[in-house]
Amino acid sequence: MLASALATRKPIASILAQQDAAGASTGLARTLSAFSLVCIGVGATIGAGIFVLTGTAAAQFAGPGLALSFILSGFASALVGLCYAELAAMIPAPGSTYTYTYATLGSLAAWIIGWDLVLEFAMAAATVAVGWSGYAQSLAADLGVKLPAALASAGGNGGIIDLPAAVITLVLTLLLMRGARDAALSNAILVALKVAIILAFVLVGALHVKPELWSPLVPPNQGSFGAFGWSGILRGAGVVFFAYVGFETVSCAAAETRNPQRDAPIGLIGALIVSTVLYVTVAVVLTGLVPYRLLNVPDPIAKAVDTIGLGGFSLVMKVGALVGLTTSCLTALYGQGRIFYAMARDRLLPDAFARIDPATRAPRLGQATIGLLTATVAAFVPIDVLGELVSIGTLFAFILVCSAVLILRRTEPERARPFRVPGGSLLPVLGILGCLALMAGLPGDTWIRLVVWLGLGLAIFYGYGRRRLRAASSGPA
């Protein structure tokens, strides 16, 4: 009986009915517009990828071909983004990939992907918070302020705790506890400022590029897979895929959108277009300003600006990096809160994550718990350990999203689809293949970490979630 329950899908009609039953006064507030969703998507997407990982990917894997790596990752993300748009318009409910998986593969698969999404959202938020800390301390040092080593980082060089990373996580958590509307307004303002600063870097940097630094565009391979050459472009694409983590936060916000059938596709596709254009142009300018082998630094954009010789502009770019990382952390925490809300509503997590505060119309207690746990991780775990977990977990989730489109077209062909991925089954299949190709380009130890993480999730499910599922099947949901 339990085995059949684990494989039982949650019908889309039931998901939508549950959403409607929450009621206008007790459910998540529908206050977001298409523009808000684009800002959420851009805010989530443009952060550590552009301000931190660009230098590492160029110096170690892709060289001046970094722009090609971004195009490759962007193409794979676009295929997945179209699938997200179809599902978000058809199932405007909280939970994103978790909800879509429950509707297609059943509760056990939904739990697995929900646990996997912790890598994408909570771990990504912690990673971005640590990156934020690095830029904040660099800016503070420029102003003559320096933290004691014990409070400046987690591990190494006398560091014990990364205090700034924990503090920014908790501050953003408090903002989210005020409700989606206040958070969306703050995010929109910060996103506008972030895009303006990135465009300033592109325009000013383009006047100082040295075209000879782009030759050869694809440096010769150095004898091993991923060490430059075309395999380096692929490895670089897998690494910078972290830069695209977060655009699907738009689908997490579908339940809080005034017209999700129209606005969710606009938000998803619009965010991807804006982000990809910015990534590619920044990569071209960055590798045209600094020899790629010198870009293996935590603040590559600031290093590129230093070569221009405009000291004040370097300060502006560091502020831009802080703004960019702030919006990424904010939206990642938001997405994690909504996914846990959906899982708790299905009784796969404690009820506390599903409680909506009547004043703010936000899951305050759940959001606070997530913020405290994420702040703890950001405070004590080094950024390299965190970053390695995120990309492969996201790619795994994206494969299930593309698969969900294919399954629902077969199982529920008559259901209304306000947005439909063009080209029949071709683009979802290409999305799956593209994600698998990027996963294949990642190091073997990254795969091991994914397997260990998912194994831990299964242990938690069979120790806790299974009992909750049995209780849910014998009582009202």
Can you walk me through this structure?
With 477 residues, the chain is mainly α. The protein has one domain: Amino acid/polyamine transporter I. Helices cover 71% and strands 0% of the residues. The chain contains 20 helices and no strands. Helix 8 packs across helix 10, helix 10 crosses helix 16 and helix 12 packs across helix 19. The longest helix has 35 residues. The mean pLDDT is 82. It holds the Pfam family AA_permease_2. It is a multi-pass membrane protein. One of its GO terms (molecular function) is amino acid transmembrane transporter activity. Its main location: membrane. It is found in: Membrane.
Features:
mainly alpha; APA family basic amino acid/polyamine antiporter; single chain; 0% strand; transmembrane; Amino acid/polyamine transporter I; 477 residues
Brief rundown of the structure:
This protein has helices at 2-7, 12-21, 34-45, 48-62, 66-90, 97-104, 107-120, 122-142, 149-152, 163-176, 180-206, 229-240, 249-252, 260-289, 300-308, 311-345, 364-380, 383-411, 426-440, 444-473.
